[in-house]
Amino acid sequence: MNYLKCVSCNITYSTSEVRYRCDCGEILEVKITDWNKLKKNLNKKIFDDRLSSKEFPYQSGVWRYKELVLPVSDKYIITKSEGNTNLYSGLNNNKGFQKITSFVGLQNLHLKHEGENPTGSFKDRGMTVGITQAKVLGVKAVACASTGNTSSSLASYAAAAGLKCFVFLPKGKITTSKLSQSIAYGAVNIQLDGDFDAVMKTVQKVCNEYKIYLLNSINPFRIEGQKTIIFELLQQLDWQIPDWIVLPGGNLGNTSAIGKGLFELKKLGIINKLPRIAIIQAEGANPFYLSFKTGFKKKFEVRARTVASAIRIGNPVSFIKAKKIIEGTNGVVEQVSDQDILDAKAVIDASGIGCEPASAATVAGIKKLVGKKIIKKDHQVAGILTGHILKDPEITLNYHLKKLSGYNSRYANSIFETNTRTISREIRDFLDD
Ligand code: F0G
C-alpha cells in the first residue's frame, strides 16, 4: 500500500485518510511502497505496448502509467483520455517551429503542448487522478482555488464524476475564457476579493469546515497525475534524456510533479540520468526566483503582478517540494519580464502552435538562459507549454491591436478593416511583401 509522507518531518499517514498537511503544518507526498514488484513488472516495452492500446484505461496518457500513478481498481477511474499531447519540434517540415528556434537561438528544441488536454491545460492530468481518489474516498463534494485552469479542469472532471463542485476565484483576476469554462461545466463559482494567495487560504479553511475534498495541487494525488507529463515526454523521445526540461512556476505543483516523476523513473531503472530542470517565473511574481538567488536560505512572499494571470502567485504552496527538485537536478530558476513573455507568446502563436501567456514564459526563459550561456547552443531542450492559446484571447487581441498600454507589440500581425473597393490593394501588398 502506498502511503503519505510529510516533506519536512517524515511522519507518515495512510492514503485512506483525507489529509493535505502533516500535523507539523507542511505538505505531504505520496510514497510508493513496493519498488521491487514495480521493478520486476514495469519496463519501457510495457509502456510502449500500451501506446497502441484501445483498452481502458491505458488509452489515457495518464493511466498508461497507472502502477506509478494510482494503483486502484479500474471501477473508480474517471478519465477523459487526457494526455497524449503533441511534442513539437522543427523536424518533419515544420517551418513554423523554426520561428521559435531562431527566436531562442537554439536548434535542438522540443515543446510539449499540455494545452492540448481536454480542458485546455496540463491540470487535467492531475485532475483525473485527484477526482479518481475522490471516488475511492467516497466524498460528495470537491473544491479548489484557482487562477482559472485548475477550476476549469476540476469543474469538468467533477461533472464527469457526478460530484458537487465549488471553485473559488480571485474576482476580476482570471480570464473570461477560463471563468466561462467553470460556469458552463456546472461548478458553483465563488468570486472573492483579493488575490490567488488569499483565496487559497480561504479555500483550505472552507474545505476543512464543510468536509469538502480540496483538489488544489496541495493535494498529493494531483501531483501523481501530473508526473505523467515527464513520463510521456521521455517516451516520445524514445526514453532519451534531454539536457534541460523547462517550465513555468506558479504554485510550484508542476515543478514538484515533474521532478518526482524523474526521480521515480531513475529509481525504477527506466532512465539512468536526470536532465537539469529550469523553472521560469514572471518578474512580478517571482518568490521562488528570489529564494533561489539566496541558495534557498530565505523564503519570499511577494504581491504578485504579471500579465500572465495563470502564474500570478506570490506565496507558492509547494515551495519545499520544488526546492528539493531544483537541488536534486542541479536546476536553475530564472525570471522573465512581461514584455519577454508577450514577445515569446507572439512568436509561439505565429508558429501555428499557440499558447497562453504563462506558457510563453517557458520559451522566454529558454531564450534568456541561452543568452546567459547557462543553456548551451548545442544542448537539447524540452519545454512545457502549459495552456491553450484560447485561454486568454483578450491579451492576444490587445497585443495585435497594439492596445496593451506600457508594452511594445513588436511581433504584432496585421488586422485590417477595409471595404471591397480597397481590399485587392491590401492583398497585393501582402503577397508582394
Ligand atoms: N501555466 C499555467 C497555464 C497555469 O495555469 C499554471 C497554474 C501554471 C503554469 C503554474 O503551475 O502552479 O503548478 O507552478 N495554474 C493554477 C490554476 C495555479 O489555478 O490554474 P504551478
Written overview of the protein:
It is a single chain. By secondary structure, the protein is α/β, with parallel strands linked by helices. The relative contact order is 0.13. The chain contains 17 helices and 13 strands. Among the domains are: 1-31, no CATH class; 87-119 and 223-400, Rossmann fold (3-Layer(aba) Sandwich), CATH 3.40.50.1100. The protein is 41% helix and 14% strand. The termini are far apart. The radius of gyration is 21 Å and the shape is globular. It has helices at residues 35-41, 44-51, 66-69, 95-104, 123-137, 149-161, 176-184, 196-210, 220-226, 228-236, 253-268, 287-293, 319-328, 338-350, 357-371, 393-400, 423-432; strands spanning 3-6, 12-14, 28-31, 87-89, 109-113, 141-145, 164-170, 188-192, 213-214, 244-248, 276-282, 332-336, 381-385. β6, α6 (149-161) and β7 form a beta-alpha-beta unit. Bound molecules: ligand F0G. Its EC number is 4.2.3.1.
